[in-house]
């Protein structure tokens, strides 16, 4: 449990450092220095990329995490794990690339905007291959209990490079047709330090070793991989199909506005992502030891901790939402309700904690596949139904409803099959604290006028949120783990102040 606390805490710091950088680039620089359709193009490419990465991996990473206890042997180079993973990834990438080549015309048919997407379409391939390799080596490191480096590289370094590259546009060094080459490099570079870090871990080897791959093990591994292809594909669908369908049904401009607004929903989920990476190998080992009590404890604490952090961020977003749009060009205010809808959906996701990770790593992983197949159908249907009526708000409603669906079903299933019910009285306590703080801070008079006054308003409003919310959370002791982290952070601040 201490490993989870330490790595999750460090990863969360890196994640929110990346959030700050992402805020500067995605909320301030991209909207102000790229055209809406150009920003929309980059987001559509990334959406296609994440779906392609999931398909190209052929389910290897998920299966590798679940069965790594069988591979783990440093003296034997972890029994050819990386050789097998690279081989599967390259084969999957080649299959997907061929599919993309034949489906290109269908994928780029956008109303009056096919030229922009068609011209830059094949940039999809290098960023897909780089991300595919990054995920493999990051997953390998995670299985060896090294989760911090991957988080630093993906959440902090990559976003920093993207932000720095964008200054080439800000200062008119490059136009968009030139900048996209630099953007591809910035998106892809993080794979190099990830491979280097993985090579420094005990037992690193790229040599083939098929001693573990008996017919029985191969069948079990392949079956799990196949099922998790569908599960992972469904996860990518819920995260990225909204942008793809929005661009298809409306315009790249509206997709650009939506992507800017959707950034805040992703921010809220950062703590859960960090917690998932730190917890997954512990959960695998606990299932192997049949230690369901430890898993139930991790599950319960993940719900409370994730919700506390998520509510704090939601308050910062919701109570500053009008201020935020003061720094964007005209038209972006149309995304206000997108932010609110997606943020509320994300709160439900955070409140249910690690349900998906636990189910995927449990003996009942097949049922997660069934749930996620239903998710694909539901998500596509909701987007098809709601986007033509409500535009970007319809895409937000579709994503929020789909999020509630799969979390609710997973929650009920884990309660039914494993007897794990993570909710305690602390969950409604956190929600009540959030509502009370929202009401109290909303009474603070707004400072309007210049952008400097807007910044000042955001600063003291955010400070009030943090101090009031943090004090009540600490006093109520709803999360002893967070209280401990606050004490440790305060000791560091005091020690630094004395120096």
UniProtKB/TrEMBL annotation:
It is a multi-pass membrane protein. It is found in: Cell membrane. Its main location: membrane. It holds the Pfam family Polysacc_synt. The chain crosses the membrane at residues 12-33, 39-60, 81-104, 116-136, 156-174, 180-200, 221-241, 261-284, 305-325, 337-358, 370-390, 396-418, 430-447, 459-478. One of its GO terms (cellular component) is plasma membrane. InterPro entries: Poly_Biosynth_Transport, Polysacc_synth. Keywords: Cell membrane, Membrane, Transmembrane, Transmembrane helix. This is Lipopolysaccharide biosynthesis protein. It comes from Emticicia agri.
């Amino acid at each position: 449990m201490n490993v989870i606390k330490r790595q999750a805490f460090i990863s969360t710091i890196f994640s929110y450092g990346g959030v700050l950088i992402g805020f500067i680039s995605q909320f301030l620089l991209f909207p102000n220095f790229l055209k809406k359709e150009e920003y929309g193009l980059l987001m559509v490419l990334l959406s296609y990329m994440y779906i392609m990465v999931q398909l190209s991996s052929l389910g290897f990473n998920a299966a590798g995490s679940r069965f790594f206890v069988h591979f783990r042997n440093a003296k034997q180079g972890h029994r050819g794990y990386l050789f097998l993973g690279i081989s599967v990834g390259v084969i999957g990438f080649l299959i997907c690339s061929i599919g993309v080549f034949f489906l290109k015309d269908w994928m780029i048919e956008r109303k009056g905007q096919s030229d922009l997407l068609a011209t830059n379409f094949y940039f999809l391939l290098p960023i897909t291959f780089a991300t595919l390799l990054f995920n493999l080596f990051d997953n390998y490191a995670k299985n060896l209990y090294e989760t911090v480096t991957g988080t630093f590289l993906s959440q902090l370094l990559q976003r920093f490079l993207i932000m720095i590259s964008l200054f080439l546009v800000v200062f008119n060094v490059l136009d968009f047709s030139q900048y996209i080459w630099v953007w591809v490099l910035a998106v892809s570079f993080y794979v190099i330090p990830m491979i280097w870090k993985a090579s420094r871990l005990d037992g690193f080897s790229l040599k083939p070793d098929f001693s573990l791959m008996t017919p029985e093990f191969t069948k079990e591994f392949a079956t799990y991989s196949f099922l998790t292809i569908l599960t992972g594909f469904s996860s990518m669908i819920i995260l990225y199909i909204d942008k793809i369908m929005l661009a298809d049904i409306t315009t790249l401009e509206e997709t650009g506005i939506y992507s800017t607004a959707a950034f805040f929903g992703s921010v809220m989920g950062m703590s859960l992502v960090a917690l998932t990476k730190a917890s997954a190998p512990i959960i695998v080992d606990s299932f192997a030891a049949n230690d369901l009590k430890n898993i139930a404890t991790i599950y319960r604490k993940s719900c409370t901790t994730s919700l506390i952090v998520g509510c704090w961020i939601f308050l910062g977003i919701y109570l500053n939402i009008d201020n935020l749009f003061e720094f964007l060009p005209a038209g972006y205010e149309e995304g206000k309700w997108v932010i609110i809808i997606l943020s509320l959906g994300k709160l439900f996701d955070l409140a249910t904690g690690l349900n998906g990770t636990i189910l995927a790593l449990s003996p009942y992983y097949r049922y997660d596949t069934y749930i996620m197949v239903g998710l694909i159908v539901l998500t596509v249907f909701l987007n098809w139904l709601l986007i033509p009526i409500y535009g970007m708000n319809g895409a937000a409603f579709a994503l929020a409803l789909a999020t509630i669906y799969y979390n609710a079903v997973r929650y009920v299933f884990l309660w039914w099959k494993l007897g794990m019910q993570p909710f305690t009285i602390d969950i409604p306590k956190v929600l009540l604290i959030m509502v009370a703080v929202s009401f109290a801070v909303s009474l603070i008079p707004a400072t309007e006028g210049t952008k400097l006054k807007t910044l000042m308003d955001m600063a003291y409003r955010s400070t009030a949120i943090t101090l009031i919310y943090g004090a009540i959370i600490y006093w109520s002791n709803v999360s002893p783990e967070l209280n401990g982290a606050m004490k440790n952070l305060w000791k560091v601040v005091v020690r630094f102040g004395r120096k």
